[in-house]
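name: query_chain
kind: protein
chains: 1
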Amino acid sequence: MSAELPVDDGRCFACGPHNADGLHLRFEDGDGDGVRARITLPPRFQGWRETAHGGIVMMLLDEAMAHACLRAGERGVTASMQVRFREPVPLGAPLVVSGNVKWKRRGVIALEATVAHADGTLLAGAEGSFVSRGPLGKGPFGAPDLTFA
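structure:
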């Protein structure tokens, strides 16, 4: 793995404001120390009819865990992830994507994330491990190097 720190240039497919093809997820404080974002997936992310592609659902879960890492002050990258699909994730319906840190030890962060209907019905969940690439700090020009919205 490169010794360089990961850089947020605003082009992330999931949350980047400068990616014209992206989802533009906006995470906010969730329950406890967690994060939460709301999204309605458009038809272009279809797998089976009227259902989100599993890879898109996994990306939502991974992004929720990444933002939970940021909220905990860590610049983390995915090491492993286990996903459980409970129900089909519908297109065109309001969804809530949540993530939180379970524990941190040395350079490893254990996380969990969910995708649910707006009413709280669980659709998919994941547990994952991230490797810390260091605490959040100042970027090369003195400004914060990542922004948590």
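note: The CA atoms of residues 86 and 123 lie 5 Å apart.
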